């Protein structure tokens, strides 16, 4: 304290005035003090400039119902303290010995909060705080206005500016919420303890924080009470060092961090985080699912353990290590089906800023829907934000998937990937059995020379070719939006050539047809993997080959033409022959707004009639449809019933 002037004057009315130029303390400072002691025992104090910590006020006033000056001792009882910018005055009582630099201070608020402090001659402060309402804090700390804090805090503090600092306290009924609703908490109960000692010019400190009650939402993660924090470090010349901070978290063997923060600039110079033995079955649903798939969190399941480490310098990630131990996940299908699964996997993947690294993983397998994948080893080369995958073969039934040239890049807008895929020959019989489809003969193989993927879409550049039924399917312009979401949307065009009808009809128990067909599907659009639009046509392939159709196939094809498609004319003739000759097969469907506009061979000049099978040879027949507009769902139901039902045929 510097006492520059202490004039005592008795005015004509008996008023005593004490003027103090400046009072300084490590916790506060006052300038331009003037005590007035008018007759009657009242007193008042005006302060030209008040500083508490780093907050400043001007023209502060205190009125005491009872005040006195006894030598260097100033007393105030039942005082009212008015601070500019604050809606409610504080209740104040104090006693200060200006020469001994000691005193007591009592502060109260209209809502019942109370602060009792003792200033000792050696500069230390002892204080007890009871019932501090956190809703009043934004008036003192404007930066808290955006968080709307609530709750009550009780605590005790002891501070010697050149020796030690101790703080203990408890928050009850705590809450906060941001204006955007993305960060909020309620019913919080927190216990805090901070101890510090001044050694060799720096403050050596320890801190503990226990979270006993309540819950918080920090988008997109919901956190319940239970975690606790222990930390220690040093504060020296405005630089805060956290040597170690450890968090006790359910399902985690160890979670620790260290940091270096420049309080003068707010710059986080260094941050290191380490994780050991995290049980994914426990931490996955709470911490990972909201981050990687918030819309599908309820369908995600995790297993195994993971460890890792992160290091940051000046806000930039410098290194990363991820270690997996029998880790895996599964994502149930949006319709409740088996969905996707991957793992278990084990291995180590490191990353270093500006340095190339290598990682290896041993993967036990995977599953998409009912289709299981075999075990494989995955090797990767990582260079900054680009990851290159070694040529990779994933066993699939009696064949395999071969990925080549796969590159993943992490950009500002998220990750993207590209590469190529070859499907080694897979038995259609094994594949269809695994997928729960009617058993098919033949072999599936394919080549996708250009594959691009991101979380939002999958695009197949160029042409995708699949060999099946002794012919091939060629797909172009394939694009899938939200491939892993519940609103997946696929578009593209498909061309099929020279498909063996004998294999095809045998597969679906459709009867027997010999010959070959071509098919074109233009403007294919699937929503949630169900067709909503296309222009499709199937027709006989060009060339010379046997063309025969069985009685059963005639009946099933006729069912596609709708009620009355096959009249009973000469039905008895069908009984004399097992197969018939035909010259051409043709059927088209334009799907729009849930309705299939059907067509047959030729341009269909007649308004209601269209030819599906044109007879040829001996015996020969025509299959004719009579209903051009068919509800798509009804048509699908017909296809599902053709195996069981027999439709009458019009025989020519």
Question: What is the typical, i.e. mean, pLDDT?
Answer: 84
Helix content: under 10%
Quaternary structure: single chain
Outline type: elongated
Total DSSP helices: 6
Number of strands: 42
Largest sheet: 42 strands, antiparallel
Secondary-structure class: mainly beta
The poorly predicted ranges are 1-13, 563-572, 646-652
Radius of gyration from CA coordinates: 41 Å
For the termini, the CA-CA separation is 120 Å
Strand content: over 45%
Properties at a glance:
disordered N terminus, disordered C terminus, single chain, 652 residues, mainly beta, 42-stranded antiparallel sheet, 8% helix
Write structural notes for this entry.
- This protein is mainly beta and 652 residues long.
- 8% of the residues lie in helices and 61% in strands.
- It is built from 6 helices and 42 strands.
- The chain has a 42-stranded antiparallel sheet that branches.
- Strand 6 and strand 7 (90-97) form a beta hairpin.
- The longest helix has 13 residues, at 280-292.
- The radius of gyration is 41 Å and the shape is elongated.
- The chain starts with 7 loop residues before the first strand and ends in an 11-residue tail after the last helix.
């Amino acid at each position: 304290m510097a006492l520059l002037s202490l004039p005592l004057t008795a005015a004509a009315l008996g008023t005593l005035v004490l003027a103090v130029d400046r009072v300084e303390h490590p916790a506060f400072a006052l300038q331009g003090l003037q005590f007035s002691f008018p007759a009657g025992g009242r007193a008042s104090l005006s302060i030209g400039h008040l500083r508490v910590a780093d907050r400043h006020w001007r023209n502060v006033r205190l009125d005491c119902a009872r005040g006195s000056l006894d030598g260097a001792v100033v007393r105030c009882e039942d005082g009212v303290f008015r601070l500019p910018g604050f809606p409610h005055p504080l209740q104040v009582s104090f006693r200060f010995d200006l020469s001994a630099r000691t005193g007591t201070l009592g502060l109260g608020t209209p809502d019942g909060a109370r602060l009792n402090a003792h200033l000792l001659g050696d500069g230390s402060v002892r204080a007890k705080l009871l019932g501090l309402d956190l809703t009043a804090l934004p008036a003192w700390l404007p930066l808290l206005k955006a968080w709307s804090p609530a709750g009550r805090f009780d605590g005790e503090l002891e501070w010697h500016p050149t020796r030690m600092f101790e703080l203990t306290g408890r928050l009850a009924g705590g809450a906060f919420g941001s204006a955007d609703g993305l960060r909020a908490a309620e019913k919080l109960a927190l216990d805090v303890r901070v101890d510090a000692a001044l050694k060799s010019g720096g403050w050596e400190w320890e801190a503990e924080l226990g979270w006993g009650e309540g819950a918080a939402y920090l988008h997109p993660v919901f956190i319940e009470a239970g975690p606790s924090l222990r930390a220690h470090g040093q504060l020296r010349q405005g630089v805060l060092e956290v040597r170690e901070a450890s968090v006790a978290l359910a399902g985690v063997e160890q979670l620790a961090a260290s940091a270096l923060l420049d309080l003068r600039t707010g710059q986080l110079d260094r941050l290191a985080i380490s994780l050991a033995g995290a049980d994914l079955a426990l931490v996955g649903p709470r911490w990972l699912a909201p981050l990687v798939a918030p819309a599908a969190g309820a369908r995600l399941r995790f297993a195994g353990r993971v460890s890792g480490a992160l290091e940051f310098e000046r806000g930039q990630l410098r290194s990363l290590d991820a270690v997996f131990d029998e880790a895996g996940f599964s994502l149930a299908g949006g319709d409740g089906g088996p969905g996707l699964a991957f793992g278990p996997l084990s291995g180590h993947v490191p990353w270093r800023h500006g340095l190339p690294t290598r990682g290896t993983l041993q993967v036990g397998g995977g599953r998409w829907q009912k289709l299981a994948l075999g075990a494989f080893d995955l090797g990767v080369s990582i260079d900054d934000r680009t990851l290159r995958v070694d040529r990779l073969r994933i066993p699939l039934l009696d064949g395999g998937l071969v990925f080549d040239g796969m590159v993943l890049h992490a950009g500002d807008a998220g990750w993207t990937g590209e590469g190529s895929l070859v499907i080694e020959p897979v038995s259609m019989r094994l594949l269809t059995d695994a997928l729960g489809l009617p058993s098919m003969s033949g072999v599936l193989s394919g080549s996708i020379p250009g594959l691009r993927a991101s979380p939002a879409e999958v695009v197949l550049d160029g042409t995708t070719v699949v060999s099946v039924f002794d012919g091939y399917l060629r797909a172009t312009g394939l694009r899938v939006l939200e491939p892993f979401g519940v609103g997946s949307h696929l578009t593209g065009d498909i061309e099929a050539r020279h498909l063996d009808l004998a294999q095809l009809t045998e597969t679906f128990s459709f009867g027997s047809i010999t010959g070959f067909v071509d098919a074109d599907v233009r403007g294919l659009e699937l929503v949630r993997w169900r067709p909503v639009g296309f222009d499709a046509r199937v027709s006989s392939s060009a060339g010379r080959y046997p063309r025969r159709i069985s009685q059963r196939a005639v009946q099933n094809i006729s069912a596609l033409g709708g009620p009355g498609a096959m009249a009973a004319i000469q039905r008895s003739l069908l009984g004399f022959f097992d197969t018939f000759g035909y010259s051409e097969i043709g059927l088209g469907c334009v799907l729009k707004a849930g309705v299939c506009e059907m067509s047959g061979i030729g341009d269909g000049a007649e308004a209601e009639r269209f030819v599906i099978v044109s007879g040829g040879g001996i015996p020969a027949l025509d299959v004719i449809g009579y209903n051009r507009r068919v509800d798509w769902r009804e048509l699908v139901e017909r296809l599902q019933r053709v195996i069981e039902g027999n439709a009458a045929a019009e025989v020519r």
